[in-house]
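tool_call: predict_structure(chain=1)
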Amino acid sequence: MSNSSFNIQTIFPKTSQIPKKFKLIAKYEQKEYLIGGEIRIWNGAVQQVYSPVCISDGKGGAKQKALGSYPLLTEKEAIEAINAAQHAYNNGFGQWPTMSVEQRIKHVEDFVFRMAQKRDEVVNLLMWEIGKNLSDSEKEFDRTIDYIKDTIEALKELDRNSSRLVIEKGILAQIRRAPLGVVLCMGPYNYPLNETFTTLIPALIMGNTTVFKPAKMGVLLHKPLLEAFRDAFPPGVVNTVYGDGKAVVGPLMSSGKVDSLAFIGSSRVANILKHQHPRLHRMRSVLGLDAKNAAIILPDTDMDLAVNESLLGALSYNGQRCTALKILFVHKSIAHIFLEKLSTKIENLKIGMPWDDGVQITPLPEDGKASYLTDLIKDAESFGAKVMNPSGGKFNATVFFPALLYPVSPQMRVYNEEQFGPLVPVVPFDDIQEPLDYITNSNYGQQASLFGNNPEQIASLIDPLVNQLSRININSQCQRGPDIFPFTGRKDSAENTLSVSDALKVFSIRALVAAKLTESNKILINNILQDNKSNFLSTDFIL
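tool_result:
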């Protein structure tokens, strides 16, 4: 419902009001976990899972829907998982790392086929577990399928480019990419399927074996895919662990058996994880971390465009995206009209449950999030900011209506903290150096958006900002896609680069076979090539 008619105190549905298509028939009491090609059954402690969606009792009260539970595994199971992955890799002698690229592609294609059959179930769990609306949940699933298919095509292209022999200064060589070893993949709760698979699938297809730990939220939606992982890949290539990070991830890292860490989350946690590894220089890290992306809105901007893009950038999926616009710098000369237009747009956002048609603001999955956001507002107000939209900051349990804050200044927490939620801080400025200094002095360096139409001024901002950030968006919101584009960051925002093609490279290393161009070596190598004796030293061409 739009804000003009909604009552946040009656926002939650009764069970009878939930559309039949999206009702959960039974709780997801997950006992299963995958180690060494075997789906095992857990009979120990479990973590109860509650939806951010509350169910009304019809009497003014509402409780979070109980969804089920997942295993709280221990150090024992974590070590068994990493040992299974290490055994499958077998120091590079295992079936998976020595398999041909074409064969590994067939396994991944088999997985995609099996995964696609679970679409409705996974989409429904995305809505119930993390409060993502139906449209975005469907997009996340479909985008993940497309990403895997694009990864397959990118690997074919990479392999085709590597299929020829190189002769240089009397040395004959073939240069290809080889796997790193055992990869620990840990995804975020806000894109628990897509962003997890943007590291897991490239790591797998390049010949690495993996241990996969879901984020604290968005765990159950992986349950429907366990059998697909088991049936599509050789034993030990994919292993899953569940539970408290200290109990299971700490032992994985301290074992020294993780060759590559793929983690998307906070820089604080990443620092802890990395320093638990006893041989840090031997582990490659692929990290997607914090961001406090800024928009700079100049006096000559197309106002309606800037407002619409700021709205999307700041509040898509309730602002719970690392690529969200988390602070807006608006020139004082246009601040009044900008705030008026943006406030109206925010007030007209549709708020409701994830399955509601056209809903834009949905329940928040993090415990205590509404309280945290309220504290940020109170702190800002204590330093002179005001909530500019009438409904801003209203909340009921897990539903929080977006708040537009102005004027925001450096002494406020929301000026520096990554709020990761539906708060839109606006900072007025006279001198362009003010937002530039903010970006320069920030610990984060992912992206920024520039809104304006003066080519000289936009150009003068692009040139220094590309040395601070990884992506500058002109008259558009910050975003990750298209997936063919590099996705990374500077400072504390990222380590290494992800994209369809870049991910294949970060989970592999260039390796080569070389020989002096003697007659005997020519005969030897020709025999290997003609009889297809090697999967690495090969001129086979994948179509």
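agent: The two ends are 51 Å apart (CA to CA). Proceeding to next step.
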